[in-house]
Amino acid sequence: MTASDSRTHASHQEPGLLAPGIARFTPDEVDPASLPRSLAFERPWPRCGPVPADWAVVPTFTQVSGAWQALIDPGDGTSFYGTGEVAGPLLRNGFVTEVWAKQPFRIDEDGTPVANYDERSPSLYQAHPWILAVRSDGSAFGVLADTTYRLRIDLRAGIELRCESPFPVVVIDAQSPQSVLRRLAALCGTMPLPPRWTLGYHQCRFSYYPDARVREIADGFRERRIPCDGIWIDIHYMDAYKVFTFDSEGFPDPSATNDYLHRRGFRSVWILDPAVKVEDGYSVYEEGVAGGHFLRDAQGVEHRQWTWPGEAAFPDFTRPETRRWWSELTVEFLRHGMDGIWVDLNEPSPILPHGAELPENLQHLGGEEIAPGSHGQYHNVYGMLMSKSTFDAMLACRPDRRPFVLTRSSYLGGQRYAATWTGDNVSNWEHLEWSVPMVLNLGLSGQPNSGPDIGGFAGTPTPELFAHWIAVGSFLPFCRTHNALHGNQEPWSFGAEVEEIARTALLRRYRLLPYLYTLFHEAATTGLPVARPLFFADPCDLGLRAEQRAFLLGADLRVEPAVRDPLDTPLARPQGVWRPFALLGEDPEQPAPHPRLSLRAGSMIPLGPAAQTVDEVFDGSITLLASFDEDGRATGRLYEDAGDGFGYCEGDYRLTTYEARRRGAQIALRVVQVEGSRGTRHPHPKVLAL
After folding, report:
1. CA torsion angle 344 348 352 355 (round to 10)
2. Is there a catalytic annotation at residue 347?
3. pLDDT in tens, 424-440
């Protein structure tokens, strides 16, 4: 190692100020050069100077019973959020979270272990060692425990972080929670702008089999004129669940299946699992053995556990050679015409015995920026590294198209490679109600593109439950129905009344797509979430801090779902004028199960036509819906690009800021600002006043 290399290595966790409002702290007893490089950060962040003497949030490091602990006094009246993927309420004060990616198991009433979660589950599929803290005056700070090891976040009395290994703490301090998230994005990166079709509705099941059933589902949407853009293919397409294979009877020609879906205006997303079946003659396994790609124990013996295909080995994604090998396999897979890839069971999770995990003493070999280490060190980033390998494969295979990867397991910073969902939820009212705060806390943890399995994955929803769920899910960033082998869960499966409710809910979403796409662009450039907690409307209003039934889309649209409230408490609402509005000509005071929508006075949002596909929406006209303030003024923005590809990175986009003025019965619209070089398809949009 050269002197220059040594200085670079020493500085990657050196304490000090990293940027304005961002400071890193390390235990005095620990040499910063001995600490692992951050895998949450998009790039290394060396210090730029000392921490100011008046810095408000300083952790105290101690050692307790062999563990490392960092304590932070947040001050009275501070509200906690974030901590990634957690079930239960939005407000995390009083909760303990174990940052450890895990397929949760709970014991059912009859003693059966069930692979799903409830509010008592200390950890779920993703790992976000992050807390967003909002003070009583509306200012905020964020705390990042920059470690991939198992971490305990205790928010019962201040902030207590505990880990078996020493770790740095990064503190972000700002005047608002929005500013904290922007600075978090500067450190950890933003999500790439997804292909536009992914903003539509998606239909999935474990599993649609055989391929004739896939075509039947696609035809069902078009015949019933229910909007849909994605059909998802789960593991039953594989030959005996062996990854990168196809069942010769059920899916003899996957290219033809994808061609059929494309002709009907659908895109397809196919699943890949990380575990590789141990089988002589199976080329993927034999290549993995020859390339040294599988995890081994301390004695160098290949580790195997039981998954869907049976006894299986697990790729070591810390190795750059293994990631390249996986990418090459994925490139060949994609030549059949898949539009997206869904990576699952990548915590990683064996299937049997229930609740099994990979031993923490397995050895990861690492390479390049990742040092060798144990599975205990790299377990939490396994899913993110698999997502990265899959993302890279999609770029290599189709350099002119934006990748779309959905992952079940991820880590802080994983938004750089994949969207996510809230895992194997349950068809009950509690899980419906948790859908909103779970998505909100993921957004407050740097992951803006997420959503639940609409209707619930485990169990079968009642018609009433499904109707409420799809009405709410239609306004969350990622919109997908997915269920296990318990019954049909397509929108028409619950009778004519629920089918019409689902159709209306999805048509409402599709009308909002120009606004949603504008918000996705904002998330991709700033790190602000698409779906935001209501307190973002006024961080100083303490009455909004715990509201988790209602939420915001962007800064201007309030969504009030018709979900149950066991305490029968009224919804908290921000101050100011918020006007209810309709999207399909219905009564603005939309009856249950549809959420009530309101637009902030002074704002204006773009709407498209009610259409069957995303492409149809963006081929149609744009209407600007304006809610004028007391001075008769409303402003809003519209983002436009090709919908796919990377031309927008070279300036081929248009971000237009509009201002509308109302004087009497007359409305005048003008363009205030234009970014980008792309021309607009909507030079004279119609303005509709509330």
Report:
1. -110
2. yes
3. 999 999 999 999 999 99
